[in-house]
Amino acid sequence: MNLTSLGLTADQERVYRHLLRSPGRAPTDLDGLDVPAVLAELHELEVVDATHTPVPPAVAVDRLIRRRVEETSRELHNLSSAWVVVRDLVEEQTRGRPVELVERIEGADTVNNRVWQLASTCTETMNMKSRPMSRARADDKAVRAFHRRLAAGLRCRTLVPSASLDDPAQHDYARRQHAAGDHHRISDEYRRQVLIIDRAVAFVQLDPADGQAGALEVRQPGIVATLVEAFEGTWSRARELDVPLTTIERQVLRSLAEYDKDEVAARAVNVSLRKYRTHVADLMARLGAATRFQAGMLAKERGWL
């Protein structure tokens, strides 16, 4: 196996191997290679130091592997973002016209249909509500389907106004949704409803006073990024919904102390690996913990364990 598979060029590998064979003797001429330039590249890759001394092979390989893993992770992220393009192409095919970066959608029913089309395959939603929540029944078909998506790993966060919780029925609905995995917090910072899907598409209510007026569908990346930033900031300042831990949340907290690997812990609590890690991240955020160890300590202080 050569080092080109780990990201070195043939010239870089040749110079590195020469340095290993002849420590303390930097090559001066290797078949016309620009040796100083190659040495500078190797130094940037952290496989030779400032004196042109090669690092030990085990260290060099470890650093090259880490670099390749980071590069691969970035490539995978870029590839996964391509699904947004696929979704836009499907939308364009369905509508028979190009997808607009900002589109005005009239009427609540039209907005809801558009939202459900996108939400049926998404992996994350952020919801800022400006008015009391839906009175949807827990046994409603759409709610049950939503709960199945949550159980499969869909990550949902919802900000609700404090006034919506004055109604016991609304409070109970919020608690059921929260227990199912649609995590709720309380905030009165915004008066316009906003829904963000997969950090790529946002629906912004046209008229805060009229829930039936419609919405703007926004796909312009800069605008969506600004809305995501606003949501994250509001979420960090929002108050926790007064709900007890669910059974699965207690199991996840206990699993942090009992298992070393997430894969084993996820099987033990009978959820998918993605859902398990989502629970861990949400619990850490709820506890204000920076590490899993700290989350366990804070959970004990609160009497959650």
Automatic annotation (TrEMBL):
Residue span(s) of domain HTH luxR-type: 242-299
Protein name per its UniProtKB record: LuxR family transcriptional regulator
InterPro entries xrefs: Sig_transdc_resp-reg_C-effctor, TrmB-like, Tscrpt_reg_LuxR_C, WH-like_DNA-bd_sf
